Structure formats: structure tokens, C-alpha cells
Amino acid sequence: MSKFLRVLPQRDEIGVTLTNGDFVEISQTDSTTGESDTIRIHIEDIPVLMEALSSAIDYAKAPF
């Protein structure tokens, strides 16, 4: 199992874990409560997730 953590400026810690098998777990811990939200996704589905996230970012940045 491989794991790395990244702390984003003014954001909570995000962890990415490559689990045994072909899955990745992405978690984010709320620094104020200590609670963690986690999703688990098959590595073959990561490009679809990345495309969806990119589309969401583009939408959020679009002027209204």
C-alpha cells in the first residue's frame, strides 16, 4: 500500500492511498472536527473522475 498526504494552503489535509488491488482512496480531513470523508475508486476510473473534476472547476470559474 502506498500513501501520500498533501496539505493545501487554507484547506484541509488531503490523503491519497493506493490500496492493495486496483483501487485508490482519496480522503479529506476536516481540521475543525477531525472527521474524514473518503471515496474509493478503481484506478481505471480515475481519468473519468479527473474529467468530471475538471468540468466542475471550469463551471465554477465561469461568469454568471
Kindly summarize this structure in a few lines.
25% of the residues lie in helices and 41% in strands. It is α+β, with helices and mostly antiparallel strands and 64 residues long.
Q: What is the CA-atom radius of gyration, in angstroms?
A: 14 Å
Class by alpha and beta content: alpha+beta
Total number of helical segments?
1
Tell me about the biggest sheet? 4 strands, antiparallel
- The coarse overall form would be flat
Kindly give the count of domains. Answer: 1
Q: What's the N-to-C terminus distance?
A: 43 Å
What's the β-strand tally? 4
Strand order of the largest sheet: 1-2-3-4
Helix and strand run: EEEEH
Average predicted local confidence, pLDDT: 83
Extract low-pLDDT stretches. none
Q: Per DSSP, what share of the residues sits in E-state strands of 2 or more residues?
A: 35-45%
Helical fraction: 25-40%
Oligomer: single chain
